[in-house]
User: Which sequence fits this backbone?
């Protein structure tokens, strides 16, 4: 599903964030990107979301080479990749429900879909009772689960065997 083939990303003339990286992530796999500061974790995510381009090499998502992806298809690509960031990226002035609903609002889902799906995904992460709380009222673990719920509510394509 995700393939990096000999990917290099250089910033400037001397700074390599990635050098000749190859990896395969199969459908249904969960991948954790870990490493010391400056190891290239954020660069991998930015390349995968097509926020930046590789200096060399190819990146494929669902069989499509990202170099050949039209700019108008980038939002669709990003909706189909569920990412959870270390700082969770929750909106502090919105409730838990509103934070999750926002992910659906920005892609134009109708209100009845939002009202149906948000409670389901809150139930899934075990935080239905926190729907009206704000991020600062939650523990770090709860904030992380809300971030997961927001990534999942767009329903990235299911793994198939």
Assistant:
């Amino acid at each position: 599903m995700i393939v990096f083939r000999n990917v290099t990303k250089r910033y400037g003339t001397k700074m390599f964030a990635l050098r000749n990286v190859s990896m395969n992530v199969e459908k249904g796999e969960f991948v954790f990107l870990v490493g010391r500061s400056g190891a290239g974790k954020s660069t991998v995510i930015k390349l995968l979301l097509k926020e930046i381009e590789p200096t060399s090499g190819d990146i494929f998502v669902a069989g499509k080479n990202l170099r050949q992806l039209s700019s108008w298809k980038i939002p669709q690509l990003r909706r189909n990749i569920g990412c959870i960031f270390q700082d969770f990226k929750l909106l502090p002035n919105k409730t838990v429900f509103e934070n999750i609903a926002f992910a659906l609002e920005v892609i134009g889902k109708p209100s009845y879909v939002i009202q149906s799906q948000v409670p389901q995904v809150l139930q899934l992460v075990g935080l239905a009772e926190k729907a009206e709380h704000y991020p600062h009222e939650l523990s770090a673990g709860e904030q992380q689960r809300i971030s997961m719920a927001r990534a999942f509510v767009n329903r990235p394509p299911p793994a198939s065997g």
Observations:
- The domain at 2-79 is CATH 3.40.50.300 (Rossmann fold).
- The mean pLDDT is 85.
